[in-house]
What does this fold into?
Amino acid sequence: MKKVICMACAAALSVSVQALPAGSPKLSINKNNIKVWTYQDSQNPVMMYKAETILNVPIEQAVALILNVDHAVDWVPFLGKMKLLSRDDKKGEFQLYMVLDFPFPLKDRDLIVQGKMAKDAQGIITIQNKALKKGYPLNSSYVRLTSYEGDWAFQKLGPQKVKVSTYGYANPEGSIPLSVTNMFVQQQPYQMLQKMKTELEKSKALAVLPEILK
It folds into this structure.
């Protein structure tokens, strides 16, 4: 079965799980048990975000949904295509090719993602992603994104409860008004976590994770 992180990245952004960006965070959305904070960096006009929620499912089930590349287009906002290029379960590394559907008249975007998954001594599972400049042929139908980073963190709170956090940044490239981009930054992570909840409610199947995450 082909699995790898689907990393909800249609708009995603750049912050590491351990260190949030400098500056004062703004709580942009707080509803349906989902919070989205946005950050402004003086060196980057595009906002960064952190979003989090608590899900009433085992941590394994939440992580498995993110890792299921074949099912990602069914629930990740604006994701048109995802293809697994390589994966090394022993190292916890993988590469993906993704196509993002942008609304007309904007051109769709594509990107190559290098990912790393790990589990620390406290049992927190992380998935970190960044864009690569090479690794898949250019397609004139798409605008290639090369400035992207995005992280996931999963913290077990109980047998049927997990805290899910996602962080990120992306330069969408091309001629897109900054105000439109920043509005997208606020809404996309909220929609993503909402859809994630809905998907997890559909199935209670036993989840099996890669050995490195057990």
About this structure: The CA atoms of residues 30 and 36 lie 7 Å apart. The chain is about 15% helix and 40% strand. The chain has a mean pLDDT of 83. Residues 178-202 form the longest helix (25 residues).
